Automatic annotation (TrEMBL):
Species for this entry: Flavobacterium indicum (strain DSM 17447 / CIP 109464 / GPTSA100-9)
Keyword Membrane belongs to the record: yes
Record-given protein name: Putative transmembrane PASTA-domain protein
Transmembrane intervals: 12-31
Keyword Transmembrane: yes
Lineage: Bacteria, Pseudomonadati, Bacteroidota, Flavobacteriia, Flavobacteriales
Residue intervals of the PASTA domain: 41-108, 110-180
Length: 204
């Protein structure tokens, strides 16, 4: 049979139709397989991992078909237990696909230490700004007679006097002893009274 007659024969068209059907079925099966592998159209609700230990979060996410990835450890936050998750991305209740990584940050095990700078003879405003920048807390201020007003004369923590170079924990409360700026005036008043007494004695 010549090629021309074969291409116009019923046998050719039957084989062509069969090939088309097989191709369509194969493509349909391939698409369904890919949809199954990628969970096409299916989304997972991201759980809230806040305050969870890392190993607990790993088990939880594994059950949901997700993964956890530790990014960093942050400075200690007292409102969270030590070594628990404080931040996550994506956020809780976000919709994600199966296999998505959830990025987390852990709380430190406790407050880190800072070195006390030299705050003596600094103004209270300067000292307060410095301790806040170090992660410390401004406590009580006590005024005592001194020529310099609002100048730091002494600093302490829980009644213990501190000096430059001391190591203390972040979030510690620092108390201040400040000058009231009145000592000069007291000295001037004393000198004036002394002079008045001398003048009175001389007149008598």
């Amino acid at each position: 049979m010549s090629l021309g007659k074969f291409l116009t024969s019923l046998t050719f068209f039957k084989q062509l139709f069969l090939a088309i059907v097989i191709t369509v079925v194969f493509l349909f099966a391939l698409i369904k397989f890919l949809d199954f592998r990628t969970n096409h159209g299916e989304e997972i609700n991201v759980p809230d991992l806040s305050k969870m230990k890392l190993e607990v979060a790993e088990e939880k996410l594994d059950e949901d078909g997700l993964e956890v990835f530790l990014l960093d450890t942050v400075d200690f936050r007292p409102e969270f237990p030590p070594y628990t998750i404080v931040e996550q991305d994506p956020k809780p209740n976000s919709k994600v696909k199966d296999g998505r990584k959830i990025y987390v940050k852990l709380n430190a095990g406790g407050f880190s230490t800072v070195t006390m700078p030299d705050l003596i003879n600094k103004t209270f405003r300067q000292a307060a700004s410095t301790i806040r920048a170090l992660g410390l807390v401004e406590g009580k201020s006590k005024y005592v007679p001194n020529i310099a007003k609002d100048v730091v004369l002494e600093i302490s923590q829980n009644g213990k006097k501190l000096k430059a170079g001391d190591k203390i924990l972040k979030n510690s409360t620092i108390d201040f002893v400040l000058g009231d700026g009145k000592e000069l005036f007291k000295e001037e008043e004393t000198d004036s009274l002394t002079q008045q007494l001398i003048d009175t004695t001389a007149t008598n």
